[in-house]
Amino acid sequence: MDTQALNAAIRPTQPIAGQRPGTSGLRKKVTVFQQPPYLQNFVQSIFDALDGKSGQTLVVGGDGRFFNDQAIQIIVRMALANGFGRVLVGRHGILSTPAASCVIRGRRAFGGIILSASHNPGGPEGDFGIKYNAGNGGPAPEKLTDAIYAHTLSIQRYLTLETPEVDLSTLGTTAFGPATVEVIDPVAEYADLMASLFDFAALRRLLASGFRLRFDAMHAVTGPYAQELLVRRLGAPADSMAGGTPLPDFGGGHPDPNPTYAADLVQALSGAGAPDFGAASDGDGDRNMILGRDFIVTPSDSLAVLAANAHLVPAYAGGLAGVARSMPTSMAVDRVAQALGIPCFETPTGWKYFGNLLDSGQITLCGEESAGTGSNHVREKDGLWAVLFWLSVVAARNQSVEAIVRDHWRRFGRNVYSRHDYEGVDSAAAAGLMTHLRSRLASLPGQALAGSTVAAADDFAYTDPVDGSVSTGQGIRVVLADGSRLVFRLSGTGTEGATLRVYLERFEPDAARHGVPTQEALAPLIDAAESLAGIAQRTGRSSPTVVT
Ligand code: VG1
Ligand code: CO
Predict the structure, then answer these.
(1) Ligand 1 pocket: which of 493, 500, 545, 546 to mutate (most atoms <8 Å of CB)?
(2) Which residue ranges have their beta carbon within 6 Å of ligand 1?
(3) Domains in the chain with CATH codes
(4) Reduced to 3 states, what is the DSSP secondary structure of residue 403?
(5) Would residue 281 show up in a list of annotated catalytic residues for this protein?
(6) What's the whole-model pTM score?
(7) Band (438; pLDDT cuts 50, 70, 90)
(8) Res. 4: pLDDT tops 70
(9) Where are the alpha helices (DSSP H) in 253-354?
(10) Which candidate, 534, 481, 477, places its Cα nearest to that of 504?
(11) Cβ 50 vs Cβ 177: under 8 Å
(12) Mean pLDDT on 298-325
């Protein structure tokens, strides 16, 4: 299309260092994104990496954090100047990550730009992030993020429109020359998709039966979605919601649904008078935490339980084609796949690696240990979907959350699991620790460790079974003869120093020992991790920042 008709301006610029996308797009401090042309350069690099976008539809939305509204204005004008024919924006620029995926797919868009730093804190001093999702609704594959990064290194100009701000508060369509900007309801399309997957009548009956739930949106993006689904469509009382009002700084909190950052919810679910079911989601609505009364479901177990009970949900009643988990996620779901006689894939950390498996129909469910679970209904992990799935299992089995998980352990054995995060570690020290581990890999097999013997040790590499692309250096994996695993990797989503993640897993077949506290059951492995990596000496930390 003729960008002249839109008064497109060509602004000279030059490359800015540090625009390499990590696990889930580009994440930096808000103050970095606020400095023109940091955001403009990255957005133009995305557009320059996309062939065939002219006249096409782009979806734009974010998690509502500080700077979201200003960034949306910049991106909408740049999208029009770069020749997109239609830009769909969530009202006020807000779309949860799974809703953006839903809209991209439902409207057959060319792709979408999602503004979020997920579970990282927001506000003027907080974090901001941006990522591109392709036409399948999922995160750009590594090939595309590499191409985007290459453009950031050579960029000389960006295109924008000389127009005033676009009104994003009113639903409807505005013409800009030959192109249009359409402001859409961020909730309706997503809620309709959920209604097509689950038996809402059964869920309404559950909630009418005296069953009590508490959902904590952590002042992040899921508030309006949960209000529509849980309260309006399913009949939960309004006071089932906590943190339901989205705030640009998430109320000063850390919108990460884990027992540390959602301690209020854990507290609310403890004791005799507590609700039957608790759940929370993160900044952009793709993560989930599930609790029963006095009981926390670990994300790895959650994936396994959902896979084992998927036949109870209408959308999955026909069976699962296969399942997948990220490498550090516990092997609990592998046992379910084996029992069901379906394939189980092990991918690198990050949702983008599930895309080809979902698109090619090889898997139906997938998940990560970091509180992410999802299915082929979109191409992102989906927090509220997981909540509705769990409620469906509770309704169909007429059992408590705790009883369902304990039953699962009895049937499949328990993969006792924990992740230890060392946040804000000196980057050079963290890199040195990983180099040290890599140098020891070849000598580990056969050595005694944590009461067992090292069976295998490697730096995880993945070959995509669909397109053959290879991803290397995805984390150090040490597997013991008794099935235990130790995994070490550095986070690709942090914005301060480095974050070392140590993943610990031990299989416990004996039901009589399923009650042993997790950290106690894992103590030999925790010691082994220290002896292998020298964490205390190299990072100066004698204990992790966060244990999940
Ligand atoms: C973390 C998690 C990973 C997840 C990623 C994005 O990455 O470990 O499992 O896919 O965050 O999650 P890292 O590199 O910091 O370990 V989020 O909710 O963007 O949406
Ligand atoms: Co998230």
Answers:
(1) 493
(2) 23-24, 118-119, 282, 284, 286-287, 326, 349-351, 368, 370, 372, 491-493, 501
(3) 3-184 (3.40.120.10), 190-412 (3.40.120.10), 414-547 (3.30.310.50)
(4) helix
(5) no
(6) 0.94
(7) very high
(8) no
(9) 263-268, 299-309, 332-340
(10) 477
(11) no
(12) 98
